[in-house]
């Protein structure tokens, strides 16, 4: 009797299509993985990786100076002019210099701020600080650069504050651009350092001081090696973001140019896409070099 | 306390100045302001070009966040639940669009759209570009949540006879939901603000709010209205971030 009614129930269930697919998927984890990966990997591969590779290839093309058409081929002309054209090499070194300076300054500023947030501030102040530093991180990049345009202006607040004491605003210059870039990326540097400091157990610091180490040796030999991945992660942001920037320098850098400006003018005004591609590969190569150099520190997991 | 307030002053001073300047009666952002006026706010409110730019920005941000949500979630599920050959390559591919300078992403996509695919630059190309670099924010949030959740609930669900779709709908998705909302909001904010990739993928006919600001910033006499739009942009981009932050904070407390 019992088995009879059970059999009737089973017979009633018509496996739907979704049901059959589900059963099939359940027994084939590999198929599930392939389905999960297919769309996003196709997207990233087709849209992004293909575009990057095409950019790499285009850098070896040339432009017909009469028609303005692309001439496919393998020419090292663009790369040669990167080194021979003094404008390009000057701008390349200037950009790397600014990126290094901004990164070093940001790390030096971020270390005490992050340390204060993670280890000194009360838990309540900590929450407020993290949110207050996160907020401007996400607030418009353009607005922040623009804000510095008003601060640095000849009639702005810096001129107003500094002129009475015999100084002046840095104005729209390389220094102005450097300060603005440093401000823009500071939260990006603070947060990974803060995150890695938060993971350093406080009793490790106590143990170090119990064993007789003073503050500085404790920081240098205990804390620093532990937060190095965080520092490197932060520096990836500030370095990479500065290398590719061309908007900030337009807004607060006066007539000065960075690599990004050369890329932009070659895509637009000069209509020389291959040259633009060759210039754009400079920051890519620098970043790949940097990323592979820091891979071993585990910084990439801290991004 | 002194340190806290000085950090916050340095971080917020520039934004505060923009807010004040949006009421500054001087056309050249003179400091100290000679007087205050609401004229710029009224003029910004009446501008149809601005309204169009705002709508364009909102549409682009919503579409990019939606695409990023789907793709980012799929990637997070694949990378958190399976071991496979090329896993590192896939995770590198996800962070590459934000690890490389924006201008590289911009010019690479510009070249691919125009030269390889023969596409006209439009809202569509901006959405494709934005979705590409937004995937990582959704992915990071979803991956962190999936790793914390562990597999046991999903396994229990399967043991009790639920199929893969049922398990996803009734077990995995509800647990992931707040992380996905947070990731989607961050993606929305990221896209709404983006300017560098946008300038390379938008073409002449598409004007987002950041592009409107950039175009008007250097025009004489436009500075005060740019201040108004700037204040507005900060507010609009901070609201989703604020909610995303609250969602993440709640979860941290719960765990």
Helix content of chain B: over 70%
Largest sheet of chain A: 2 strands, antiparallel
Apparent shape of chain B: globular
Element-level helix/strand string of chain A: HHHEEHHHHHHHHHHH
Largest interface, chains and sizes = A-B, 88 and 82 residues
What are the key terms here?
heterodimer; A: 303 residues; mainly alpha; two-stranded antiparallel ribbon; 1% strand; globular; B: 255 residues; MetI-like fold
Description of the structure:
The complex is a heterodimer of chains A (303) and B (255). In chain A, 76% of the residues lie in helices and 1% in strands. By secondary structure, chain A is mainly α. In chain A, a hairpin with a 6-residue loop joins strand 1 and strand 2. In chain A, helix 5 runs parallel beside helix 9, helix 6 packs across helix 9 and helix 9 packs across helix 11. The radius of gyration of chain A is 27 Å and the shape is globular. In chain A, 41% of the residues are buried. The model of chain A has no long low-confidence stretch (mean pLDDT 85). Helix content of chain B is 79%, strand content 0%. The two termini of chain B are 29 Å apart. Classes of the chains: A mainly alpha (303), B mainly alpha (255). At the A-B interface, helix 2, helix 3, helix 5, helix 6 and helix 7 of A face helix 1, helix 3, helix 4, helix 5 and helix 6 of B.
Gist?
Chain A is about 75% helix and about 0% strand. With about 300 residues, chain A is mainly alpha-helical.
Give me the secondary-structure topology.
The complex is a heterodimer of chains A (303) and B (255).
Chain A lengths: L1 H11 L4 H11 L1 H30 L3 E2 L6 E2 L5 H8 L1 H35 L2 H16 L2 H12 L4 H6 L11 H25 L3 H9 L4 H29 L3 H6 L6 H9 L5 H22 L9
Antiparallel strand pairs in A: 1-2
Chain B lengths: L1 H20 L17 H8 L1 H34 L5 H13 L2 H15 L6 H27 L2 H8 L4 H30 L2 H6 L7 H9 L5 H32 L1
